[in-house]
Design brief:
alpha+beta, Lipoprotein, globular, single chain
């Protein structure tokens, strides 16, 4: 009887230790953005052209980021600051999301409806790039375990806060320079793809 209780106790302690380790690992890999910049708003759902390249390096200062597109819905403001085509055959889209809803936001409807995406929690896993001219939609890239190559909003975004995000997609054909970024119930945001360095 004592052996059975001891084995059961060890099993419970092992499960608690593993769960704690996984929670700390996920928290460390959240990618929720370290900067608390204010995400200046300059346009509403209209693309703006950057003259002289992207300012990915200057993400420390909000004024250094040019907003390519911005859309609003339910108190959220989604801004896109860059959409770069990389040599590896993918497009990286980056930006900020500002929560002006008056309550905490967890991005539950942004993770997508596919069963495989359920493990991505509050993330941009359900985002897509739409090539209107080519009539094709590109989904967020995923690793072999179904984890998206995108930001997870671990712990959500509190009201009044702004956080940075990114998402990677397969690259459309080289002659496609304009796409629409779509996620959750947000309106589509039209952006121009620039060539990476």
């Amino acid at each position: 009887m004592n052996i059975r209780r001891t084995t059961k106790g060890r099993t419970v302690l092992t499960a608690v230790a593993i769960t704690t380790g996984l929670v700390l690992t996920v928290a460390g890999c959240g990618g929720g953005g370290d900067d608390k910049d204010s995400g200046k708003k300059t346009s509403s759902s209209s693309p703006a052209k950057s003259d002289g390249g992207d300012d990915k390096q200057g993400s420390q200062s909000p004024s250094a980021q040019q907003v390519l597109a911005e859309v609003k819905s339910d108190g959220l403001t989604l801004a896109i600051t860059s959409a770069n085509r990389d040599e590896g055959g993918f497009v990286t889209v980056e930006g900020t999301v500002t929560n002006g809803s008056g309550k905490a936001w967890v991005a539950a409807d942004w993770r997508g409806d596919e069963r495989e995406l359920a493990g991505n929690g509050g993330s941009l896993a359900g985002a897509g790039l739409v090539d209107q001219a080519g009539k094709k939609k590109y989904l967020v890239l995923r690793d072999t375990e179904g984890r998206c190559l995108c930001t997870r909003f671990t712990g959500g975004v509190l009201s009044g806060e702004t956080t940075e995000w990114f998402a990677q997609f397969p690259a459309p054909p080289a002659d496609t320079t304009k796409v629409s970024f779509q996620v959750g119930s947000m309106p589509p945001a039209s952006v121009e793809i620039s060539e990476g360095e």
